[in-house]
Amino acid sequence: MTTIDSIPVVVGGPSLPQERRLVTAIPGPRSQELMDRKAAAVAAGVGHTAPISAVAAGGGVVVDADGNSFIDLGSGIAVTGVGNSHPAVVAAIQDQAARFTHTCFMVSPYEGYVAVAEALNRVTPGDFPKKSALFNSGAEAVENAVKIARKFTGKSAVVAFDHAYHGRTNLTMALTAKSMPYKSGFGPFAAEIYRAPMSYPYRDGLSGADAAAKAISVIEKQVGAANLAAVLIEPIQGEGGFIVPAEGFLEAISAWCTASGVVFIADEIQTGFARTGAMFASEVLGIVPDLITTAKGIAGGLPLAAVTGRAEIMDATHVGGLGGTYGGNPIACAAALAAIDAFEHDGLVERAREIGDLVLRRLAAMQAADPRVGDVRGKGAMVAIELVEPATGEPDAALAGAVAKSAIAQGVIVLTCGTYGNVIRFLPPLSIGDDLLNEGLDVVAAALAGA
Ligand code: PLZ
Fold this sequence. Notes:
With 451 residues, this protein is of the alpha/beta class. The protein is built from 15 helices and 17 strands. The strands form 4 sheets. Strands 6-12-11-10-9-7-8 form a 7-stranded mixed sheet, sandwiched between helices. The model has no long low-confidence stretch (mean pLDDT 97). Residues 77, 137-139, 142, 165-168, 234, 238-239, 267, 269-270, 295 line the site of ligand PLZ.
């Protein structure tokens, strides 16, 4: 138990005071102590954004061991969409933990797993019979989507895009575009992965149709549909810079896949579950993928991931070909059922749209006043600014890093992203209130003005 202003705090969730409050410099002494222990005990490769010791979180705040309360504009990288320690998620976890914590679904199946599969089959886009399989992490879901597509098509090549992020395992490192920090020194990588150009309207100036024609030409000339099992794409790229493709790009790629016997996989691990103002970004962007990978927002913070898609593709794999000791862990499934219910019935899709309207309006005002804000983009509660040298349009990663660092020191957790590291992204929990959201944006605006 820690104390904040002498009040014992043992629980987070929405009842935490919804305020930004700094009572020490950041990091405070207790957080610094944890940073020192981390440096001594945790492998150096595991970095951190905010130098704090988190002890509670909920609504739109994260509280540290020194009693500082931060406005959360990151949701632990798009995970706590329903809000940290959402009461229904907590209750479901507690109830399931008291019943059983594990049997292994492949040994003694249980209802929670099947119910999550049913829910995913229902809420994902596509008016056709679907099936799902559950895993532990986003990377594992992507790996399995590739396995399934290869088995179904009998082909081996996979196309991913410039700026893509799909994970840190060997196959998903190969699928991820950016070398530093994700891949550098960690090769050799998995074979039969090819890269196509992404539609990036701010930087390529191409229409969706032209960008798709360019990508399809690369795919046809350098890979060939006869060898291609799957095209894998984030409908809105996450780590790569919150890149929203030009209108028509995804439809054209998806249509080409359908015509060419290639499985079209949407990686909705960051964009899924109400984040973009629809249950899935595919709906916002007008596509119906063959397979969808999900994770992050699915279970209110517990590790769970899934592949969902056309039943005939999902069923192509022999019995025993898919699985894992923990995939679809019963506690994670209980959390997911509560979280999915909250996404569907607590108005969170609408809330994501409202958040998007508010944040985009504020960011557009920042752009109008400051030529270093080169681009403002995003959908729903997944929006970003791209910072540049005004004279040249060159990416300004140093500025993005300085703004994020200064915002954190002022009590607002924001994340950067982008191939060039020059994008500041906003991924608030959908449980955040307008007041905190505005205050958080005020702090970011002041940090930018002062940088
Ligand atoms: N696909 C689209 O966004 C995870 C990575 C953070 P895991 N993104 C956050 C980091 O630096 O490791 C992600 C994603 C998309 C796949 C993944 C991978 O999901 O659950 O981290 O494996």
